[in-house]
Amino acid sequence: MFLDFSKEALPLYVQLKTIIKNRILDGTYAYGDLIPSESEFERQHNISRITVRRAISDLEKEGYVIRSRGKGTHVIYNHNLPEQFNRIRSFTDEMKHFNMKAGTSFLEVGLVIPPKEVQIAFDLEPDEKAFCLKRVRTGNGKPIVYFENYFPTYLDLPIDDTLYKNSVYTVLNEKGIMQPVRAIENFKARNADEDIAKKLCVAKGDATLIRTRYGYNRENELIEYTIAHYRGDIYSFSVELTE
Known about the structure:
elongated
C-alpha cells in the first residue's frame, strides 16, 4: 500500500498509522512481533522520520505497540478470535465470520484404534476402529487449532485426504449425513507438549485450551467426538448467560 500525497488526502502520519494498524489486525504483524524500524518505514514510503514517529506514537497510545530503547517497536495487541457459544459451526465458517481465510497445514486421515475416551464414548470394543481425521487448521496462514475428529465407521466416510482440506461437515452433508444438531463441549487448559507445540508453531509449555466436543444427530446418537487444541495466544471464548 502506498501513501497518497495529494492535497485532499489524509495527513501522511494518519495514512501510515492506518497501514500499520491494519497489518496488526490482519495478523501480518502478530503479537510480540518486531515491526519495521523508523528508517525502514521512512525508505519504504519516502516520508520523514517525524511522520513515522508520530504514526507509531499514536499506535502506542492506542495500545497496539510498545517502543523499547535499543530493542525497537513490538506489537502488544493480542489479536484473539472470540467465539461465542450460541450455535454449532465449522472452523471454516468461524474464519469467514472473522473475515479470515481458513486453511489446512497438516492433514492425516484413516481408520485407527482410538483413545480410551473415544472407545467409551462410541461404546467400542478394545480392538474396534473409528474414523479419525487429524488436521492443523489455519487462519490467514497462521496455525490456530489442531483437531482430532473421530466418527463411527458405520458412517462410511471416505478415506481420501483431498476431501478434508475444508469443512468436514461439508463432506458429511454431501454424503447425506446430517451434521451434529446438538453438542456438549468441555474445556480445560494445558501447556503444549512437544508434539502440539510443533503443530501449532508455539513454544513447548505455551498455554493451550483443549476443547472436547460430543456431537449428536437428530436421533440423539453420538456421531462426532472431537478433541481440539487451540493456541492460547490467539483464540478466546465468550458465553452469554441469561436468567
